[in-house]
Amino acid sequence: MGMEKFASKIKSVLKSSYVMHEVAHGEVTVVVRAEKVVDALTALRDHKDLRLVQLIDLCGVDWPGRSRRFDVVYHLLSPFKNTRLRVKAMVGEGESIASVCDVFPVANWFEREAFDMYGINFSGHPDLRRLLTDYGFEGHPFRKDFPLTGYVEVRYDETKKRVVYEPVKLTQEYRHFDTLSPWEGAEYTLPGDEKAGADQ
């Protein structure tokens, strides 16, 4: 089945859940309404001509300048039809999207990871809590506005004989470097360059 034909079939199966699709690099990406994501994934899993029965990944994407800031991206596989599909749903900061754990039980830890890294809330999740960061961690590290240094540093204190958490202290201020190389930008002849000019 060709990619455009495959995309048309998906559009007909999704009905009112469908928003748009794109074919690029030999793969189909379909955008669905966030409020109908459970219906959409159930239809894609159960339809006899698609049988996209495996959720192989679920992740988030941060678009801080967009009103609906996050994409929740589902990667589906049909081992019966040897096809893959990427499904996206847009969700705003502070909004929730329904958990798909009842459709694909493997989504449990994927959704916990997206919650931990991006702060995306999955309503109806059986155990939505942080997965990769430490207890009491502040913020969501995969958001584009999260500082590269983080907020807290962890170190072992020899005098206290335990691990301590402290606010990040930079040992030096950020510096601005002049990246113009003197080898390219000098307006005078550098020692040794006079030989190169003589050959021309």
Describe the model.
- With 200 residues, this protein is of the alpha/beta class.
- The protein has a single domain (3-198), classed as Beta Polymerase, domain 2 (2-Layer Sandwich).
- The chain is built from five helices and nine strands, in the order αββαββββαβββαα.
- The strands form three sheets. A five-stranded mixed sheet has the order 1-2-5-4-3. Strands 6-7 form a two-stranded parallel sheet. A two-stranded antiparallel sheet has the order 8-9.
- A hairpin with a 4-residue loop joins strand 8 and strand 9.
- The protein is flat, with a radius of gyration of 25 Å.
- The mean pLDDT is 88.
Short description:
This protein is α/β, with parallel strands linked by helices and 200 residues long. The chain has five helices and nine strands; from the N terminus they run H-E-E-H-E-E-E-E-H-E-E-E-H-H. The longest helix has 12 residues, at 3-14.
SSE arrangement:
Layout lengths: L2 H12 L3 E7 L2 E6 L4 H10 L7 E9 L7 E9 L4 E9 L4 E3 L8 H12 L2 E3 L28 E6 L4 E6 L14 H4 L7 H6 L2
Parallel strand pairs: 2-5, 6-7
Antiparallel strand pairs: 1-2, 3-4, 4-5, 8-9
Order of helices and strands: HEEHEEEEHEEEHH
Q: Which whole number gives the mean pLDDT? A: 88
Q: The biggest beta sheet, please? A: 5 strands, mixed
Global structural class:
alpha/beta
Largest beta sheet: what is the strand line-up? 1-2-5-4-3
How many strands?
9
Rounded Rg: 25 Å
Number of individual domains:
1
Q: What name does the CATH topology carry?
A: Beta Polymerase, domain 2
CATH homologous group name = NADH:ubiquinone oxidoreductase Nqo5 subunit
Helix content: 10-25%
- Put simply, the count of helices is 5
Label the CATH architecture.
2-Layer Sandwich
Distance between the termini: 63 Å
Unreliable stretches (pLDDT < 50, length at least 5) are none
Q: What is the CATH class name?
A: Alpha Beta
Shape: flat
Give the DSSP E fraction (strand runs of 2 or more residues).
25-35%
